[in-house]
Amino acid sequence: MTDAPGHQRILLVTGLSGAGKSTALQVLEDLGWETIDNFPVRLLGSLLGGESDHPAPLAIGFDSRTRGFVPAETIELCEQLATRKDIELTTLFIDCSAAELERRYNETRRPHPMARERPVAGGIKAERELLATLRSWADIVLDTSDYTSGDLQQVVRERFGKSGGREMTVTISSFGFARGMPPLADLLFDMRFLDNPHWVPELREQTGLDEPVAAHIQADPAFGPAFARISETLTELLPRYAAQDRSYLNIAFGCTGGRHRSVFSAERAAEVLREAGFSPTVIHRNLGSRPADPLERS
């Protein structure tokens, strides 16, 4: 991956320990960026002193563990570098809630770099205070509290990859609102206005992939007109997104439990888009979840 002759993209990747910096750098490397982790920030000016007609984009990772790291000095140095016309400097701060970070550290049993003799929560609090000014100053802040590793990888690809003329990757997912919102969705359709097959005893254990459930949903008078408008919207918008050089597009269909209406609608939408020339990937997030009456009443 190269930019205009003599012009280099520089991405500084920082954030809270455990929030996902290493994962982001790995994805950037896969995308063709040169990557360096834990680089002494005070040496950044000398690192960017080389000359090349086609410099590769460069991602530099640093955080509270990096030798000589002082947030105020880092910001001052970056402001100086940002005045150079031969580089485009962007700072990405990867954040995460304290509760989720604590869960991740307890799960992996790794010591937090700033906890020392304190509990993990104390180390997280100290690091958040240290990095507060850097977070406020950053160009982009990603909060990974509700992300899986795969979600973060996808977001990084979308923000920092280049399509290079490749076909736009379309993902259609189904999910249950009662089991949490999807972290990634460019277009979201709420199918809870349809009659819920969960309350039909013979359909409860089945899913939107089963024909009896499909027949039940299609028999709802609201389904036909509504889905026709959804199909029209998708076939109208997707070529426009592709024309904007989007690399990825995420479409989500939700219902209460994520096992019936959203699943069927996602499958039908995939058929519509395949007929329109796209090749969507379909993911059913809650298809394997158990039917639950209390959840369906929520």
TrEMBL record:
Q: Where does ATP bind?
A: G15, L16, S17, G18, A19, G20, K21, S22
Q: Where is the RapZ-like N-terminal domain?
A: 10-161
Chain sites annotated for binding GTP: D63, S64, R65, T66
**Keywords noted in UniProt:** ATP-binding, GTP-binding, Nucleotide-binding
Q: Which Pfam families match?
A: PapZ_C, RapZ-like_N
Against InterPro entries, the record matches this protein to: P-loop_NTPase (IPR027417), RapZ-like (IPR005337), RapZ-like_N (IPR053930), RapZ_C (IPR053931)
What is the top-level taxon of the source organism?
Bacteria
- The chain positions of domain RapZ C-terminal read 168-287
Task: Tell me the NCBIfam families matching this sequence.
Answer: PRK05416.1
Indicate what this protein is called per its UniProt record. Answer: RNase adapter RapZ
Q: What organism does this protein naturally occur in?
A: Qipengyuania gelatinilytica
